[in-house]
Design brief:
homodimer, 160 residues, mainly alpha, Arc Repressor Mutant, subunit A, two-stranded antiparallel ribbon, 46% helix
Chain lengths: 160, 160
């Protein structure tokens, strides 16, 4: 049982933006922080924009940020949007008639119930919950609390 | 979110065998009933044998049957065995270090909890539950209740 790479990346982008706070983030910055491809992220962030989670600011110094508070972004809702159909088995898809026992199948009903239990568990968590505590996550992603640049420490110059 | 084809087929084979009752079933018969490939089913039934769900009787007139009562075959256990690793995201796999925030990630913990909710929902269902009521499922799979052959009705012979 796997979530798509697309869902995985979407959730990680949202976490990055929640940790970035008010600052704008670029695709290059997110790609570097997680060590993943910029090309993949372009599609992911475009879709997150269409879904209303992310807004983009164009131009020099531009980038993206969350368009809603992290407290109202519910994990279950994001996964329902990013997973193409949540079809655990082919017969979940509308109009599928490939299985002989479809019309009387208790397995299908049971799997539907289990999928709902999965999503319900995610409905209890918001994006804000995922980024607590902030400091260690910001550190791992090379983000500084409050978006401030780290203090610059001059290296002692070695003389030859 | 998808289960593997292998899990899907495994569950359907077990349902077929539970509906077949004491009779032996062949791969050809199961493949025909569901309209799926015999080659796929050979691997599936071999693994179900290794997992102790199915036993084979060799020789002419041989075939396979459940090696346990359907009432003690728990759906959640079967899925845990047939799904390769239940790794919703790559970082579920042991030893994976591909994500920068792994050490402090609440998303991973939340997804683990959701996966457990999914499996717990399946733990409440046995194979016996999946094949009730038997008659319509047996009919859809061209199995006759009790394993008896259907009454043969002589066709009127047309004379040229």
């Amino acid at each position: 049982m796997r979530l798509t790479v697309y869902t995985d990346y979407s959730l990680r982008v949202l976490m990055f933006l929640a940790l970035k706070g008010d600052g704008l983030a670029t695709i290059a910055e997110i790609a570097k922080a997680y060590g993943i491809s910029k090309n993949h992220l372009m599609k992911v962030t475009h879709q997150l924009g269409l879904a209303g989670y992310v807004e983009k600011v164009r131009g020099k110094g531009g980038g993206m940020r969350l368009s809603r508070m992290a407290e109202v972004i519910v994990l279950g809702e994001v996964v329902r949007r990013t997973e193409p159909d949540m079809a655990l088995v082919p017969c979940f898809a509308l109009g599928d008639t490939s299985c002989a026992i479809l019309s009387s199948c208790a397995l299908r009903v049971t799997l539907f119930r289990a999928r709902d239990a999965f999503l319900s568990a995610l409905d209890g968590t918001t994006l804000a919950d995922l980024v607590r505590p902030r400091a260690p996550l910001q550190s791992l992603l090379s983000l500084r609390p409050g978006g401030r640049a780290p203090p610059r420490i001059a290296r002692p110059v070695r003389r030859a």
